[in-house]
Amino acid sequence: MTDPALLADTNVMTSSSPTRATLSTLPVEMLDRIFRLVDNSDLIHLRCVSRYISTIASRPFAIRNFGNMRHVVTEESMKTLLAISAHETFGAHIKSIILSPVRAISAVLEPLDFSNIEDDGIVVDNSFIKSGRFSDLMQQVLSNFKQHSDSIAIGVKEDCCLRHSRRDQYSVAPKQQIFHGERAFCKAAELGTVFETSETLELLFAEMRAAAININRLEIELARDSCYNVRGKTQRTIKKLLESRNSSIDLKIRWKYHGVLKYKHLQSSLRFSASSLLLDRFDYRADVLLLDDIVQQLTDRSVWELYLRELDNGRLSFLNMYFIQSLRTVTLADINLSSAYFAEDLYSNMFERLSRIPDLRHCKLHRLHYLLQQDTSWSPHMMQTRSGRYPSERETLLLVFPDGKFEFEIQGADISQQLKDLAAYTAAAEKEKVRETEAARQVIDSRVVGAGVPILEQEDPEYSSLALVTS
Hints:
By secondary structure, the chain is α/β, with parallel strands linked by helices. It folds into 3 domains: 22-64; 67-257, no CATH class; 259-471, no CATH class. It is built from 14 helices and 20 strands. The protein has helices at residues 4-15, 28-35, 40-46, 51-66, 75-85, 127-130, 133-146, 182-188, 197-210, 233-244, 292-298, 316-320, 346-354, 415-440; strands spanning 68-72, 96-100, 102-108, 122-124, 151-157, 162-165, 169-172, 193-195, 214-222, 250-255, 259-264, 269-274, 305-313, 329-337, 362-371, 381-385, 388-392, 396-399, 407-411, 447-448. Strands 1, 2, 5, 9, 10, 11, 12, 13, 14, 15, 18, 19 and 20 form a 13-stranded mixed sheet that branches. It is elongated, with a radius of gyration of 28 Å.
């Protein structure tokens, strides 16, 4: 039986003037480009116009709605993923799978034991995983994927449903993106939920290996106040997964409201931005992911481009680990570097270190700060030198470069000598700052500047937090 909508399209074509273009007479390539600009709701209507139009509109519709699949680890949600992956049109356009590591709590034993992170009195419902149903469904999904590609990107995102918080009992996580099966899962989880990030990552990798599918990109998003990682469980899992990979992989790790690490193997590029994240190993708040092992796993291969932004760091040795010998381009922006004593030549030592990288050809520096010490939240900030401690109205001091500006760019074949000259200038400026402060018995200027350098009129050098890079 002839489709009435298709017949209507045919009538339009036969009755129209040969010089008048209609929707159905436009080339497929042109319609495809037009439909990419159409709103999602209108794409749904276009797919009802005719079989011809529906066929063309289905591609942008599939890319927009099924390119990145988001699911929770439940039977209902995984069956939805299986159905979409098996669809003759939609399945071919799935490029990544994002799983929420949320699990329903089946019981809470009293009293809760907050001292033992491995056994805290929370019983998680893992029956779907232990029964083998997750593995069975996932293998069917991956079998469908293999018909279109032998590689896929996977992600784990801590942003879904109710979750259990040790200190706040039960709280609601903000929802930014809908996960398939989320509403039903939330309704069923009357006791609340917890994040099982390490287990979810291990499950995904195990199923990918069993299906002989390569992972070309791994994305992990961690909640700011997640209680998963007090003993570094997620950190160890990521390290283990990176060690076991048999091919290059793009990596993105985002700490919600804190920062992001991105590594792209084709561009040999490592980018990292954060705010107060690089904590000392002995810091009590070591529940955030420390980067030492992750960076070492990534930099065992050549990294040509390094971009570091918004780091608050009290350990110069940690930053040194980023300056590997293969670098060609380095960008440092809004760095807060501190030390027990201001007279440790912080940035001059860093520039000297950069000057020894053999293939470096481009270095951009922007707003480099010295973070001053503060004993308590109510006490004034202090500059500590060998001779004593001196109060400051500002929490940071800002390096002024030899041209009088707060940003500096170095490039060319003689970049090594330029960096050595900058190191010498900065060392002199740092020593002058100590002399000036000790003479005045206080920090009277928030800038660290060499003698005879005119300071150009610019924005207020006082450090103010910038918006984090989240993309």
